[in-house]
Fold these 2 entries.
Entry 1:
Amino acid sequence: MHWTNRSSGPSVGAVVTASAVRSTVGQKMLMAVSGIVLVLFLVAHMAGNLKVFVGAESFDHYAHWLRTIGAPLLPDSGYLWIQRTVLTAALVAHVWAATSLALRARAARPVRYAHRRPVQGSYAARTMRWGGVIILLFAVFHVLDLTTGHLNPVGDRAHPYANVVADFAPERWYVTLFYTLAVLAVGLHLWHGVFSAVRTLGQRTAVGERRARLAASAVAVGLCAGYLSVPFAVMSGLVG
Amino acid sequence: MNLTLRIWRQAGPDVRGRMVAYQVTGVSPDMSFLEVLDMLNERLTLEGADPVAFDHDCREGICGACGVVVNGVPHGPQKATTTCQLHMRHFRDGDTIDVEPWRARAFPVVKDLVVDRGALDRVIQAGGYVSAPTGSAPDAHALPVPKADADAAFEAATCIGCGACVAACPNGSAMLFTAAKVTHLGLLPQGQPERQSRVLDMVAAQDEAGFGGCTNTGECTAVCPKGIPLETIGQLNRDYLQASRRPARSRS
Ligand code: HEM
Ligand code: SF4
Ligand code: FES
């Protein structure tokens, strides 16, 4: 190494007092933890969605039951509001850390290469940021569609089954298309994301790398299959 | 072999640079990449032109001074090979080869292909050392180290601090370098006293120097002349997590 020393800015000592979330590694950990909270929700949400195959009554009953979790300790929909708060906090933390790191990365290379080999890493790894934006846009649409009902053609909060069936009707193919794209984006995001999160949280062996890759593939494929089965079933008339 | 080299020329830190094309003739396939630059520089000097500034020292792949980006790849197309060890037989007669300096905010260009890699030294200064007096080389079995740890520490210790990992990273992150040092020292008994402050301080120094954050993309290992594995980054993360949970804080 060569020992030129053009020290600039505050000394290292001043910097270490900054809290862990100000550091790139700390922000990455925040992203991993919040990402995992979101994944756990996605798994539970998918399990609930699959009730659509049991029938309208079962699905609607499940949706009503969600509002009564914790009763009589919690007020009506009390649990749902707790969950919404936690999920919103996780999403805000996740997107904040992602944005902060993306801005940092851009600042870290002010002069670009004239000749740059395409990044060799997986497509999933390269599309984390834009894929995340697609997921975020979809999440907003999805809440307005099936939670509040504003963008749903039926929008009947008492009968979610009917809302779902109306949503994926063949003439609303663009909704199904957007939904499909978003689900695939989530799958891709988690194919890299789960593997990445495991290393971010301290996985450090070759065997562990292989297991993490396997787990990430399982999560990605499982979630995609589960979420895509619903619109597919409605479109093909299996559910209606 | 006859080649066209397009080389980044920049007269000093604060002036604009550009790619300049040079024809180089009579290149032997047995020459190293740096010898081709030497050949070009001899001619430029005789012509009274400014020779191309580039960094080099050992020319045997161990000092880490010589890195340049060749056709978009740090240290060129040959895997696990520094630029000084890259031979021209990996190119073809008539090729056009682009040569650029490492690109990172933390590595300002000094001149042409020479960048100031002092930022890596500041990361080392922040904690990449042991303060235990270790004396001269001890007897091999005086201080037992499990074989697996010794191997992993040795593998990490082969990092030559060249900065290719930073040059390749889409985020301009120095994580592989820092992780190699943290792993190397953290797995050995002599490295234990400062294990926690080391990781906190080195990460802070790395952030302070303006490097980006790691996204586990893996571009770094692919170009690392020493093949430092990505698992070292997991080791750094683990140490960082442990150090942040404990009251023991940084040294400074
Ligand atoms: C809403 C917008 C979102 C954005 C902008 C976003 C962005 C990102 C980015 C940039 C990364 C880092 C990529 C990397 O480390 O290589 C990341 C990681 C991750 N994301 Fe997201 N994401 C979003 C939503 C989600 C959602 C909804 C989930 C859960 C289903 C999720 C789960 C994860 C996980 C598990 C990681 C890995 C964390 C790590 O690498 O340590 N993300 N996300
Ligand atoms: S980790 Fe590899 S690429 Fe990075 S500085 Fe060390 S030897 Fe060079
Ligand atoms: S000149 Fe020393 S590693 Fe290339």
Note: Chain B touches chain A through 70 residues (CB under 8 Å).
Entry 2:
Amino acid sequence: MTVSMPSSVDETLRLLSDDPAATILAGGTDAMVEINYEHRRPASVVSLRRVNELATWSIDGGTVRLGATVPYVEIMNSELAAASPGLAQASRTVGSSQIRNTGTVGGNLATGSPAGDTIPVLAALDAIVEIASVRGIREVAVVDLIVGVKRTVLEPDELIVAIRFPVASGPQEFLKIGPRNAMVISVASCALVINQAERSVACALGSVSPAPLRCGDAEEFAAANIDWTSDGIRITDPRTLETFGSMVADAASPIDDHRSTAAYRKHGIAVMARRALTRATTS
Amino acid sequence: MTDTSAGSTTTINPPATGVGNSVDRPDASAKVLGSFEFSNDLNHERMLWGATIRSPHPSARIVSINVAPALAIPGVAAVVTHHDVPGSPVYGLISHDQPVFASDVVRYQGEPVAAVAADHPDTCRRAMVAVEVVYEVTEPVVDLLTAATAKPVHPDGNVVRRVPIRFGDVDAVGDIVVEGTYEMGMQDQAFMGPESGMAVPAAGDGSIDLYVATQWLHEDRDQVADCLGLARDDVRIHLAGTGGAFGAREDVSFHVHACLLAQHTNRPVKMQYRRDESFLGHVHRHPAHMTYRHHATNDGRLVKVECDIVLDGGAYASSSFAVCGNAARFAAGPYKVPNAVVNASVVRTNNPPCGAMRGFGAVQVCFGHEAQMDKLAAALDMDPLEIRLLNALETGDRLITGQILDGVAPVRECIEAAAAFPLPPISGNDVFDQPGGAGRTADPLAVRRGVGFAVGFKNAAFAEGFVDDTHARCRLENGQVTLWCAAAEVGQGFVTIVRQIAVSTLGTDRVELMRASTADIGSAGSTSASRQTYMSGAAVLKACEEVAEQVRLAIAATHDVAPELVTIEGGRARTIDGRVDVIVADAIADVRFEAELRHMHRETYPLDEETGQGDCDVTWIFAAHRAVVDVDVELGLVKVVEVTTGQDVGVALNPLHVIGQIEGGISQGVGLAVMEEIITDVGLVRNPSFTDYLLPTMVDMPDVRITLIEQPEEGGPFGAKGVGETPSLSSTPAVAAAVRAATGLELTRVPIKPQDIALG
Ligand SMILES: Cc1cc2nc3c(=O)[nH]c(=O)nc-3n(C[C@H](O)[C@H](O)[C@H](O)COP(=O)(O)OP(=O)(O)OC[C@H]3O[C@@H](n4cnc5c(N)ncnc54)[C@H](O)[C@@H]3O)c2cc1C
């Protein structure tokens, strides 16, 4: 096995172009598990460890630009946490400290698991993924990046460089159900992003569909029933919260598997969506 | 000779590391620093790697096996199948019913079909794929309730054992009757160090050395020797550093495979299971289905317990026979039960084989009888504590086997101690104090608190007439004590305890315990059934005492005093006139004192096959637990806040070690209550990984408060009892009871899943 340690994005892209079969290695928390279990036997690995530009982030006006290899621990503990509380909360639920110290959002997206915890938040944020190759840069929305269970539109020689999304303008929530109180793969998760400036509501779900899932009808319903005031948002009729929960659950298409049942997932989504909107409109 | 001059007394005292002290493990720092050699660290410059080719099907006929393509791979040194087993083709703990390699049929997913030795684990992996096994898949038997009458899974039939118990008046009827059906899922021991070890063929004489992480070296040796067709002395088993066991290392796993490969290649062969393979490569806790009917008087006294228990033993018998006996004997719990009708059976299926796990049959029934006690309390409008105290067993009571409970039985003290701790305050706002934890799902309005109690008991040491002996040797020479005992240290602390025993008897901490090996001494029996401190600890104590006695006589001879004027106490030897007052170990130089002995507990007897009556147990261990939980009743998520316990320990030889056992056992009990389960789907294991087989993390682990109930046990060293299994018995039912109290739901199955609560 050959391991390359490029130090720039350009060098990385050339290496990938020369050897598209190479495995990209960021934090390694997905890739090493696959290699250890021989689901993957890479002949060559391109490590992103020394590509410093991928590990930086910036806030420019109303937009966050998050480098693909910024680890979870930094999203939780830097100013990013205020700029994107939903993503920070999702990051806190990922694995254990060891995983959060090294795992990255780029890796989470490229793996594209239905249980990837940043994916619902990024989907609700309408995040844009910057994808580079020697052929140039293209931009893809998160909801279009992942097309099925662990299936993305990434070409073998393409690299996720950064993810862009708006700075928070209103409450954001992320709730995740697992049968253990930490370090657990999500049985179902729910992200809620409220944009006060645009008076819009976005809600996306995890682990209840093969690909990222937005809940358009429920979002419109919530936006129409929120009392948008300049000093905060309210919901006057409590039945709205209940209805929102069940509309979100209607959008989910969960399955039975060894981690849970479809019926429980749907139920859990309804409860989480209701609680998320309750928190967002009472805090 | 290092005695004191006439007239003066020495001021040297034995070190403060004897029994009763919380001494650190001798290997503690090595383990923390990473220098401890675990079995998977074994290395030999000429070694090959071995790997096992396993059935992907739970039930199939083997049409053909073609190893030629694997042998053609460069680096592959040998492939062995059932054709290559020179001795007994089958092995097993109690009945020899499990093939070394499947020949005609496979009976569970993961059953070994062949093994390969190669120069590198990667080469092994390639060879494993290259071995061509053609299967004709057959319908698996997977339902434990219909297995007894299903098509035979094995020539020995689908019922491994039935144990009926008929005690007292089987027709007795109580004023009040409560019924319930309970189920327990399949728990895994989930030890940290997967199965591993190395077989090393001896040059020339055909004998072989196996270094392996195991619970019982001599039993392994006998089974391995029989399969290899070797004399027992030609197989030497040495304990390799063991990363936990909990029952899963009682059965032979890769032992014979590694030895065969070593013999075929004439090179050392190392084998090491991967985590997913480990889940398929060892036995689990038996899933259980239990139907109970409790009769009581209007004032809450038990009149009769009726119980039908079916355990799923999986494809092979392992220790199912004994597990079933335990489930039957302890089915009524630690209560005065004048009449009982129990029918326990263990059946064969194509599910993963089940066998020993901490608590061994008593865990399953404890979940059942404790749910019933709560039901009874509710039906009588009594307090759950009160009904338990009212019926608590005492020394002198008769068990449902007819045996008189003649050991100490502080059931009442255990219950009262668990209940005596003040209830914990309402939890704070930290996410990790809330049900749902890091996922931040909790809504305080939906969180309900519940409190539950449970009490459990079981036997310690092997029962039903089993010859359960142990051997120890002590040598003292120039102040240095050397001990031999083949007791497997699996993390429980035997290596610490025996040193403490030597300190307390011989007065020195210059003590070396030799590596456990079949080559050096007789069997110590199994590290299971909470028996090693009680049994091998007693053997070591006796050996040390014999050496001390030899020293006493030598002092008498040397100083020309009558032997009865020399006393030994607390590690010191004294002459009555005070001329000699020394640490025993230092009393006489340049003489080797040595004692070796066999120790056996009192005799036990089989259960009558029709009535289940008999004096079958040696001694009993008891504990009570109180659990406090917070439940998000809408999402069904549980936070176990606190578990308190009173545990009967005899005398705590090392209180810190006892606390460690209790905390660890409670963690496993909590796991079984709310998350730990091997999920099978038509015989296939769906979660063979720590990603999906969930163990409690540190935020799932409740606060634990412990009262040790110390009433010395006759026959135990310094009054000690086994403490290892007790915490696993009633911690699970206590948590389940607390969740019932919080939710008002019946919750008749553990582990309790979120959907059982949320959609229940
Ligand atoms: C114990 C444990 C617990 C976990 N818990 C969680 C959890 O709670 N929630 C969760 O969502 N995940 C969890 N994971 C999965 C994993 O940690 C996350 O998916 C993580 O975000 C992966 O990031 P990484 O940097 O480690 O990716 P890597 O393993 O380095 O890479 C993952 C995949 O993405 C590709 N890749 C990486 N970076 C790029 C890039 N910039 N461009 C293109 N392709 C790229 C790699 O080639 C590989 O295929 C857990 C994993 C472990 C081992």
Note: The interface with chain B takes residues 37-38, 89, 92-93, 96, 174-187, 189, 257-261, 263-264, 267-268, 271-272, 275, 278 of chain A (CB under 8 Å).
